Amino acid sequence: MRQLCVLTVLMGTVFCFAGSGQTTGLSQELLPHLEKRGHATQLIVDGKPFLILGGELHNSSSSSVEYMKDVWPRLAAMHLNTVLTPVAWETIEPEEGKFDFTCVDGLLEGARENHLKLVLLWFGAWKNTFSSYAPGWVKTNEGRFPRVETSDGRGTDRLSPFSTAVRDADARAFAELMYHLRQVDGKNHTVLMVQVENEVGVIPQSRDYAPAADAAFATGVPAGLTQYLEEHRSELNPELRAVWEAAGAKTAGSWQEVFGSTPLTNDLFMAWSYGTYVEKIARAGKAEYPLPMYANAALVRPNYQPGQYNSGGPLPHSIDVWKAAAPSLDMLSPDIYFNDFAQWAGWYALPDNPLFIPESQGGTVGAANALYAFGQLSAIGFCPFGIDDQGNQPLDLAGITNPSDHPDSNAIGSLYAELAHLTPTILKGQEENSTTAALIEGEAQRSARLSLGDYTATLTRAMNASGRSSRIAVLFIQLSENEFLVTGIGNGQVTFSTEKPGPPIVGIESIDEEFFENGAWTPRRRLNGDESSQGQALKLYDSDAGQGRIYKVHLYRYR
Ligand code: DGJ
After folding, report:
1. Residue 391: what pLDDT?
2. What is the pLDDT of residue 23?
3. Which of 60, 197, 310, 385 is the pocket-test mutation for ligand 1 (most atoms within 8 Å of CB)?
4. 359 CB within 6 A, ligand 1
5. 59 lines ligand 1 (CB under 6 A)
């Protein structure tokens, strides 16, 4: 039984009450949760699949309820349904053991007034490897809360994941947050999920060299990890499996004996250490209120070594280490700002790890990536970072050949406006394996192909007066054998062929531009002639189309 004091400044009163911390008394089925439905694992909210059309706030926006007052309506106008909102440890526990949830309550209120859902980001012991969001009473007590040390004994501005004092204080604050959420949101479900810490990992060296870290390193690889590797050998990330097998696929030994003597071994050691730390935090939080939880990863720039990048974060090569260390997490999620979006996203879209992208680029590039993630990888959500800056810039067309390439254009808002109506069909398609998508990422990539039952679709750049887009995506939902709902981003076109037995040529019977009216899709224009290259292609970018970028396409075959 824990005794807890909550200081509620808003109401000017102090409540003390006891909580069991053991059972939440809430049926998990009724809470937001992840569920395997057909071919996809989906986020279920109030009994129905939910697609997060999200965006993440700048780091400091949610520290002020007042500041957010103007932001919420703008995000709602951009057709977001969910906002990723930091909650800082220093804000909720400014004094040890005294909790102030005024800000959290104000954020919930603002979101609800604007019909938005939230994913809360727990900026606890770490935010981007640093510990800048820890309260002053933690930061200034180095004796009690030790820091990551370099190999020559220097301290860093990072709390050590090997400190039980840090872990227990962090876990306690997080548990109080989750307990509070259960009290104020257990029925409303405004908060859908929670991110535990933010982009953990160690910099500037590949591991922590504090005495407790050295001691843990000397203990060797825990049986819990080697057992996981053995049990999941055939599904392991290929890079991890290769280093483990190259060292003899041992089931016990020192970290170097099991994984070899390269800097990657330190990364795996830190992955286990951060993973087991985060497990304690997540478990403490879920004991109070079991919402879906995940950890996010800062990805690796080309040729960066562990310690140059966040060593120990949930990266593709250490996903399995994190899964073994932190079974209470529901997902490991990539923050994707780099090129090669399809490759990075694909590494996280695994049968036991649904894809959720908490941070990414916005603009046209982000919109195209989102379409690909939802259509091809059954992502449960997509969230451009710094969303409070997007969509509020007037579109300046001077010197821009293709408005959809303008980085400040409201590409995310336009996409989400379309997806708001398309979402139920996409979710059904994810479940039935009838959504699919293709992405062209850069100038070097000429085309992308998709298999659509009897048909093959080929996406290429359209070359016309309206210019070229650097990134192009198309999403197909197969409605019946010959009928498809399609949407796209960028200046591309789609042609159709077949590799299946039967009549060898594919014709376009019709393309209708659709819009959503009174709860149903309604044809607006029949696209033919110049708008479909004389019936030979579906053109994704049509300067006359305005908002209408959803098409119903009928195909047929002939000889
Ligand atoms: C990644 C971090 O996770 C975010 O909080 C933010 O700092 C962005 N980088 C800024 O680009």
Report:
1. 63
2. 53
3. 385
4. yes
5. yes
